[in-house]
Amino acid sequence: MTSPMYTHSVPVFKQMLTALKTILAQAAEHALAKSIEPQAVLQARLYLDMFPLLKQVQIAADFARGISARLAGIDVPVYDGKEQSFADLDALLNQTLTFMDSIDASRFEGSETKEIVLRAGTPKEKKLSGQAYLANYGVPQFFFHVTTAYAILRHNGLPVGKRDYMGAY
Questions:
Q1: How far apart are CA 29 and CA 31, in angstroms?
Q2: CA gap 66, 79 in Å, rounded
Q3: If you classify domain 4-166 with CATH, what class do you get?
Q4: Residue 125 burial by CB count (10 A; 0-12/13-18/19+): exposed, middle or buried?
Q5: How far apart are CA 46 and CA 152, in angstroms?
Q6: How far is the first Cα of the chain from the last one, in angstroms, to the nearest whole number?
Q7: Alpha helices in 48-161 (DSSP H)
């Protein structure tokens, strides 16, 4: 039987990141068709003090990789975060999906009780069980950034809806 910790993480991340990949491709096409500078879309934000679309996507991918790796007990892959274009974001999401495909579901066995340390060695250090990390921290963080990326694109005129956001399930 597959661990619920795997079932409630990797497949969910893959579904949402695949949908985000599709929406970003639509956004690139939309910008071209409407003669919108791609950087205007990539740097768009919902409010001045929020991260732009580009950073929202990077953070969503970071959370998907980090959560999956920590729960599986493997090193978290680190990417340079220098994406600057829709093509770069597509490559980042492809790398993230490939990484998640490489993790064997059996590595998640027992991860619900594993201690996860966030921001180790800093004043913000926090220790959580794997279950609390996934359910109360990781998944909400991941969805916040995916949803914000979607909202930025929708706010900037991309004609997408809930079906696009959800992707195939």
A1: 5
A2: 11
A3: mainly alpha
A4: exposed
A5: 6
A6: 20
A7: 53-72, 86-102, 130-132, 139-155
Residues in the chain: 169
What pLDDT, in 10s, does the model give residues 84-106?
Answer: 999 999 999 999 999 999 999 99
- What are φ and ψ of residue 118, in 5° steps? -95, 140
Amino acid letter at 100?
M
Say which DSSP state 52 is in.
P
Residue 128, strand partner residues = 116
Question: Could you report the per-residue pLDDT of 15-45, keeping only the tens digit for each?
Answer: 999 999 999 999 999 999 999 999 999 999 9
pTM: 0.95
Distance CA 56, CA 143 (A): 10
